[in-house]
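Quick one from the shared queue. A colleague (R.T.) flagged M20/M25/M40 family metallo-hydrolase as missing a structural entry in our internal table.

Convert sequence to structure tokens.
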Amino acid sequence: MNKSLRILLLFFLITTVTNFKKGIAQHLLVNVHSNAAHLVVDKLAGCIQYETISSVTDIHNNAENFLGLHNYLATAFPLVHQYLTREAVNNYSLLYTWTGTNSSLKPVLISAHLDVVPIESASENDWRHDPFKGEIADGYIWGRGTMDDKYRVIAILEAAERLLQQNYQPERTIYFAFGHDEEVGGYEGAGQISALLESRGVALEAVFDEGLAVAEDIIPGVEEQLALVGTAAKGNLNLKLTVTGEGGHSSMPPLETPIALLSRALVRLHDKPFKPRMIPTTRETVNVLASRMGGKYKFAVRHYGLFENRILKMLAQDQATNALIRTKMAPTILEAGDKYNVLPRIATAIINIRILNGEDINSVIKHVKKSIADDRVQVEVFGKYTPPSPVTPTDTWLYAALNSTINKTFPDALVVPALFPGATDSKHYTNLTPNIFRFAPQVVNRESAKLVHNVNERISVDVLRKCIQFYENLIQTTCGINAAQKFVKKNEAAALPFGVNGE
């Protein structure tokens, strides 16, 4: 065999072996990712099986389930519990600390919650799968908490677990804060975590919590996905309306019973909503969306002063956008009577009110009393009042970093700052940072959004996978080496401001 032929044969053998090894490596890598995806689905399914229903009246409600979930997480995420410090706060909430290499940098806090809402008794037979079995079927994990908010607890810890497998070490300290009573206000969970951090002199760089999501077909006229980031949140207030009467037999009712008076009051509140207003956060939202809604919308927004009433009228026509321009009221609990032939002496209603920025408890109560216009209807505050949040600035490296993270995970989505109409645990951290971002890394449409707190709550395996990717990216983007400097230099090089104006 001549020398040239030997060299050619040797090259052929080396190439064949190399490609064979690459094939094996790729096959193993696919299997590893496939197994990891399968395992994390099982982790969420197991998490759902703990009935961690929170209670307003009993702070130790379902204590065994909460403590059982703590133990479950320790088993499911061994590296996290080996390298991070975990503290139980007020017995049932969890605070993890991932210490960074640079103590001069302010920490970042990523928030989620362990508790869930109860199953309405009237809907128990409507569930296709047991709400507390965590069953996996048709590409979904089913059960209470799959969308709110146990999927994020699992995704955050899984992201950290995978980064630890790669020997990742953040430069900036990271806190994972998992409250146990978010669904009933968060005062015993996130409220206590916040107080603990404040007592230790901690000032946070930012908080990333649940909130708005990547929305499809939410805004009329906009076809592309919108990654809506909550940079402000409405306030929350419950008012109790009470009407008393003399009672008696239903065969001889008076002209006006407590139920009749209460019903009239509710109708008057419905017929006299709060006036629409365009707050700065929603104006910012509209400015971004106008470029995607066609020439006439862009022109109207550019000349907002001339078209203000028309724009507000257009936004008021849709349920989703109407919530962005006014304080909203909704009766949620009605109580009166115990027997069909006995007139109740007392009728009550709880009104849940989501308060637009620029209003407060005093202006809301004034509006309610004026609308009802009946002194026989007693109005009193029920529970605790949460004022509207401060507005998070979008001209910062943090917003740019979040924007980059979202684009990397959801490349087809337009990132838009927006008002969050609900309330989350993030309200308890406003004393520690002005930078609070409310974003849930999942894709929803009008139908899937209705599953939250509802029958047949479920999340797709693909959504869970993307959620993990999002938090892996977010941790590295905000807490990696020289993270802030990278985004400062990037924006300076582009000669563009941060935030939505530079997108």
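Residues 253 and 343 are 7 Å apart (CA to CA).
Residues 3-48 form the longest helix (46 residues).
Added to the table.
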